[in-house]
Known about the structure:
The protein is of the alpha+beta class. The chain has a single domain (32-249), classed as outer membrane lipoprotein receptor (LolB), chain A (Clam). It has helices spanning 2-7, 42-54, 58-63, 117-139, 246-249; strands spanning 66-71, 74-79, 84-89, 94-99, 105-109, 112-113, 149-159, 162-171, 181-187, 193-199, 209-212, 216-219, 222-225, 234-240. The strands form three sheets. Strands 6-5-4-3-2-1-14 form a seven-stranded antiparallel beta sheet. A five-stranded antiparallel beta sheet has the order 7-8-9-10-11, covered by helices on one side. The longest helix has 23 residues, at 117-139.
Amino acid sequence: MKRILYLLVVCMIVWSCDPVESENTTDENPPCEGFDLANSDPAAIELADSVMRAMGGRKNWDNTRFISWNFGRRDLVWDKMEGRVRIESLRDSTTYLVNIHDGTGRVQIRGQEITEPDSLQKLLTRAKNIWINDSYWLVMPFKLKDTGVTLKYLGEDTVSNERFNILELTFREVGVTPQNKYRVMVSVKENLVKRWSYYENANQDSANWNNPFDNYQNYGNILLSADRSDNRGPKNVRVDESLPDEVFTTF
Length: 251
């Protein structure tokens, strides 16, 4: 399971979304700069917009400030507006304080702060990759129109008497492993992502895994999926309007 989770570092390295203006965009949910608008299906873009509305809307997502959660044996706190992240890794007694926008930060291992520049930089890069993986498991539905993403609509399917629209995400020149792809199942009734599938290589037909994306709850002004039915993924999720600066500056 750990190896599979780290394969998900495909997810977008650039997470600060600068909307791009186009005659095909809307004020409601403009795509990030670098989103593959030309090669994405209009139906897929419309579906992504419907997911954003169902999750609380773009304005509420943009205005969400602090998100905290547990993923495996890691606790994370993310200042979404300023790019500050705190990661406490229980497995190896390591605390990371990293700014994902500029790569700066501090790291402490078993009570000892790492100050040697090369070692510190490697650890901060690791911290950013951890955050990319762990946050994608939590907020993927908000990232459907991110930089480097191409969206395709694959039609409808019915599973356990529930109808779904199928959306495929592939990636161009973004992330660590852009050859990956995802397919997500969006409930026709609720417009929420209910399942997602991961393909290590975009050319393969069979998914490496298929997992639920369920148990949505309100956190602040948005919906998030946590404490899922397969007991994997994010747990102990919180959204806060304010947190002390010490969360991101002190061990």
